Amino acid sequence: MIFELLALGVLSALRPATSQAAVVALLRAPDARRLLLAFTLTGLIVSIAVGTLIVVAFDGAGNAFGRSSFAAAFDVLAGVAALAFAAGVKQGRVSPPHRAASKPKSPSRITTRLSHPSARTAAVAGVATHVPGLIYLVVLNAIAAEDFRGGEATLYVAVYNLLWFAIPIIALALAVFSPGTANVYLGRGAAWARENEEWLLVTSFAALGAYLVIKGVVALA
């Protein structure tokens, strides 16, 4: 369980996403440290709270349909969805985040709003760029499938979120301790991610989909 959680957390942090563009934009703002703190802290608190509620909902569904059967069936469905997404990106039917945001006359709302951000805007962006997606639901399903006591489930949700927010956390640390290098390092990382966006998305979601399908089918069998 813990190894799966760590792997999915790292995948969520490193895969191309709009949150990376938001972090780079905030780093260029005059008061980067305060804005990044608002972005990271608000996003973490809301995401952990939402994740905990979803775990409770998944646990209820598991009790209704059978905990192991529900978790396995969800893994199969999520795996198929991940494979379909990877195939869509590869065939050009699905536009990756940066490619979609760079289309003419379709500027990113987040990038536009963060051109002159306030702390409130940064906080809202922290939540908006970390809406639970497929990978998060897979993580929450795995947590709900375990027989955790008390706040253990919330602890695992928090661990995943800390990994998911690794980029803004690192950016905040750099802005505090090495502000001169923060833009350089994060800018280079973001540029590399944009250049390799399609390959990263296809590879990561194809691998994730294959893993989930196999895991779910084995569990159902």
Automatic annotation (TrEMBL):
User: Does the UniProt entry include the keyword Transmembrane?
Assistant: yes
Keyword Transport annotated:
no
Highest taxon of the lineage: Bacteria
Q: Which UniProt keywords apply?
A: Membrane, Transmembrane, Transmembrane helix
Q: TM segments?
A: 37-58, 70-89, 122-143, 155-179, 199-220
- What is this protein's name? GAP family protein
